[in-house]
Every structure is written in structure tokens, then in C-alpha cells.
Design brief:
Blueprint lengths: L11 H14 L7 H14 L4 E4 L2 H11 L5 E4 L5 H9 L3 E4 L22 E7 L8 H11 L2 E5 L7 E2 L2 E2 L6 E5 L12 E5 L4 H11 L3 E2 L2 E2 L10 H11 L2 H19 L12 E2 L5 E4 L3 H13 L25 H9 E4 L7 H19 L1
Parallel strand pairs: 2-3, 2-4, 4-5, 5-8
Antiparallel strand pairs: 1-9, 6-7, 6-12, 8-9, 10-11, 13-14
Helix pairs in contact: 1-7, 2-7, 3-4, 8-11, 9-11
Length: about 375
């Protein structure tokens, strides 16, 4: 079986060297040495001055919303993983969906202003598949209307835009280090504070640890900490990230060459150094997608309808916002297998099945 994604694992002996020390120190959690070291190294790699390592990307979103004190309407994208929307709802805020750009699949910045009301407090946008949002236009709108900006950058590790890490845009950026991601710590995530507001740093730090200071509770919080075991995996994996991106680039270019039509994949903004996090392909119809997915499955090849459905259609979202572009694309998009151990021969096989399935349905 070829999975749609597969975690990279470093040489076992490298991880063992870290783990053996934990048996000596017995410091397994609560901001241990490895967590502190990982945060320091991630700051350097991501070119940011303030980074907080947490237990997953969803906690990062919760902490970002709560930490900024957002309580009302949040303009957001309907084309993202479900955690983007549920984090807004979980914090008792109201998601206001703005449709997506049909070429990048990110939120359409030119439609944001029309959705702003006197209750709007923030914009929460996703760098879909690691593709940058229109960050400059979004910043311009946010400044004009005094709005906060959070980027769900779950897919954007290693991406640079105009020479700087994509994670340094927005007031806060959040990221996932789940096992399926390009860089992972098995489970994990992080929040980057780009505001240079030290009070916000302190708030996030407190909220990550139950709001606990010494023997006193300063504010509401949750258990957003991560363990030394997870941090050790991150320290092992970080040195391999650039090589993993190069391998994914090679595989993605092979897919592009074999499958041909550039219009079937999203556009990436100029001045972007991309990380090749996923290989999504857009089919002409949902029926065609389902047929190709079945053909892949019959050949023991996994694929994923990522993202489906469009989040504005979730049954527990009460605010109705039509997003025809997102609704259409979510029905026609499929992510093909992409991971570092995938071979060029396997890519050729997958591409052949995709092309044959398309041909059969079209004819």
C-alpha cells in the first residue's frame, strides 16, 4: 500500500542518544532542556524572535485566539482543515467565511473588506498547502480597519516569501508539527508572536501552562505543553528539513511533468521559496475525481480529498455564507501521495493511473 503521506524518521541511533539522557535526568515534560533547545533552534530556522512550542497545531490556534482577546467575528477561509473553523467556534467567536481565490485556493483578499462589520475583530487566514496568502494586501486591510491577523500556517514550515519566513507575517502565526507534516515532532505545534509585544509573550506562556505562576494561577489556561520525547524528535528532524524539501521538489516536478496540465494545480505567488508540502490536483468534475480515486485505491494507492467539504457547509456552523468557489474546488480536489521515501517509479505509476482514469471517464 502506498500511503498518501508517511512520516520521515531520522536514524534511530540519533533519537536514542537523546532519549537515553532522559533516563538519566528524568525530566520528561514541563519545559525541559530539549523543549527549550528546540524552541531556540526553531527561532533561528524560522527567522522569528518569539516562538512557543505546544502540543499540537489546534492548541496553537486556540491559544492565539484567546491570547489576543478575540471575542466576536473572525473573518476566515472556508478552504482549510476543520481545526481552523472549530478553533473559532470553540472560543465562542463567530466565523465569517470569505470565499477563496480560484488560482491559489487561499482566502480572496479582495473580498475581505465587504465582510467587515462593526463586530469584526480579526482575520484568520490559511496558507493553503503552504502557498502564501496575499499577506501584503491582508495587512493593508487589517491596518485600515484596526483588525488583528492570525495565519494558520500549518503547512508552511520552510516557506519563504520575499526573502523572509512566511511564519513571520501576521500578528500571530500558528503551525502544526503533526507526524504527517514536512517537519514533525510526532505531535506538536507552535505559535509565533510577530508583534514584539512582550505582554502577549507572557500571556501565551502562561496560558500554555494552565495560567500557572509558581503556586498561583494568574489567568485562564490549558495544558498546551509538549514533552521532551516530542522535542527530541524535532531536534533530530530539523537538520534534515532542507534535504526533505529538495526531495519533495523532485517528486513534485516529476508529477507535474507526467500529468502535464499546470491549470490543475494551484498557483504559487512569485517571490516564494516553496516547501512542496502537498501535491494537490484539481479535476474537471467530482465524478472524475471519484473514479480516479477508486482506481488508485484498487491499486493499493491512497489519496485524500483535502480539503473536503468546504467549511462553510459544516452542519454545526450556523452562520450561512455562500462560498461558491470553495464549495466547487473542495469537491474536485485530490491530494496525491507525497513524502520523502516515495520513489520516482512510484510517482510514474501513480501518474499513469491518474491519466488513465481521466481518459476513461472523459471518453
Amino acid at each position: 500500500m502506498i500511503p498518501v503521506s508517511q512520516p520521515f524518521l531520522p536514524p534511530k541511533e540519533e533519537y536514542d542518544q537523546y532519549i537515553s539522557q532522559l533516563w538519566d535526568t528524568k525530566w520528561l515534560t514541563n519545559q525541559g532542556i530539549y523543549v527549550q533547545q528546540l524552541e531556540s533552534e526553531l527561532k533561528k530556522y524560522c527567522q522569528c524572535s518569539s516562538l512557543f512550542y505546544v502540543n499540537n497545531g489546534t492548541s496553537a490556534l486556540h491559544l492565539a485566539i484567546k491570547g489576543l482577546g478575540i471575542k466576536n467575528e473572525v473573518i476566515t477561509t472556508p478552504f482549510s482543515f476543520v481545526a481552523t473553523t472549530t478553533s473559532i467556534l470553540w472560543e465562542n467567536c463567530t466565523p465569517v467565511f470569505v470565499d477563496i481565490d480560484p488560482t491559489t485556493f487561499c482566502i480572496d483578499a479582495e473580498k475581505i473588506e465587504a465582510a467587515i462589520t462593526d463586530r469584526t475583530e480579526a482575520i484568520l487566514a490559511t496558507h493553503v498547502f503552504g502557498i502564501p496568502c496575499e499577506v501584503e494586501r491582508i495587512e493593508e486591510i487589517a491596518r485600515k480597519h484596526n483588525l488583528l491577523v492570525i495565519y494558520d500556517a500549518a503547512h508552511a514550515f520552510g516557506v519563504q516569501y520575499k526573502g523572509r519566513s512566511l511564519l513571520t507575517y501576521g500578528d500571530l502565526s500558528t503551525i502544526s508539527f503533526h507526524a504527517t507534516k514536512l517537519f514533525h515532532t510526532v505531535e506538536g505545534g507552535a505559535i509565533m508572536n510577530n508583534t514584539e509585544n512582550s505582554e502577549l509573550d507572557q500571556t501565551i506562556q502562561l496560558m500554555r501552562n494552565f495560567g500557572f505562576v509558581g503556586e498561583n494561577y494568574a489567568m485562564i489556561g490549558l495544558n498546551g505543553k509538549n514533552s521532551e520525547f516530542h522535542a527530541a524528535m524535532g531536534l533530530c528532524n530539523l537538520k534534515y528539513v532542507d534535504a526533505l524539501i529538495e526531495k519533495r521538489k523532485e517528486l513534485s516536478e516529476a508529477y507535474r511533468k507526467l500529468l502535464g496540465d499546470k491549470r490543475e494545480t494551484p498557483d504559487i505567488m512569485k517571490s516564494t521559496k516553496y516547501n512542496y508540502a502537498y501535491y494537490p490536483i484539481l479535476f474537471e468534475t467530482e465524478g472524475l475525481l471519484l473514479q480516479v480515486q477508486k482506481n488508485l485505491r484498487d491499486n493499493q494507492i491512497a489519496s485524500r480529498r483535502y480539503f473536503y467539504p468546504s467549511l462553510n457547509t459544516l452542519p454545526y456552523v450556523t452562520s450561512a455564507h455562500k462560498c461558491p468557489v470553495s464549495e466547487d474546488i473542495s469537491r474536485r480536489i485530490l491530494c496525491l501521495p507525497l513524502y520523502s521515501d516515495l520513489t520516482l517509479e512510484e510517482v510514474e505509476w501513480i501518474a499513469a493511473i491518474v491519466k488513465e482514469g481521466k481518459k476513461a471517464v472523459i471518453v
